[in-house]
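In this section we turn from sequence analysis to structure. A common task in structural bioinformatics is to predict how a protein folds when a small molecule is present, because the ligand can shape the pocket around it. The inputs are simple: the amino acid sequence and a SMILES string for the ligand, here flavin mononucleotide. Study the lines below before reading on.
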Amino acid sequence: MARNILVFYGSYRRDRQGIKLARWIVDALNARGDDAALIDAKEVGLPILDRRFSDYGDGEAPAAMAELAARISAADGFVFVAGEYNGGLQPGLKNLTDHFLEQYYWRPAAIASYSAGPFAGIKSATAWRGTLAVMGMVVTSTALSLARIGGAFDADGKPAGEDGGRLAKAFPRFADDLGWWIDAAKTQRESAALPF
Ligand SMILES: Cc1cc2nc3c(=O)[nH]c(=O)nc-3n(C[C@H](O)[C@H](O)[C@H](O)COP(=O)(O)O)c2cc1C
């Protein structure tokens, strides 16, 4: 059965580059038979965190927040597309993520990082690993990392050049790992009560 996977991306910059990677990951997962969708923080448009979803009473949360909470709860797994700002997390993605908590529990997450330079946002990936684990997700060990994102896709959004080629080559293992953990977590959720 197709796996319901949400791909989170959170840059608000007008010249943002990571959107190309996020869109490509969504398409590449769907091409494998999964049911992946992009969650673009800028498009969702939640404010800087005031109240979390859980701080609202039943039916009182803003519609966009309630809708996303339901989509997260219904998802089988997640991909976080993580750019790196000053050696750490992008605030837009962190802000979106922090609005929710229990909705992520008992599902796996995979991290795809990128940057403009040669180090592929690896510090951001490391920071997200700890954050996602705290938020109830099991983080897969196979990360995807894209260096020099500016030249890694052609005009049609297809991987291009050496860096794009590396991305396309690394993707199947990344997706296989996430898929395996999604299936494992799903089986467990269906056969055992949640511990809390
Ligand atoms: C505020 C800011 C801080 C940045 N810090 C880093 C950094 O620490 N390491 C890095 O490799 N690239 C850094 N960059 C370059 C980004 O990797 C590059 O701009 C990337 O495209 C940002 O993602 P986005 O285009 O999706 O917003 C930074 C860019 C910005 C705008």
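Residues 11, 13, 16-18, 83-87, 115-117, 119, 121, 149 surround flavin mononucleotide (CB under 6 Å). As an exercise, try to locate the residues that line the flavin mononucleotide site and compare them with your own expectations.
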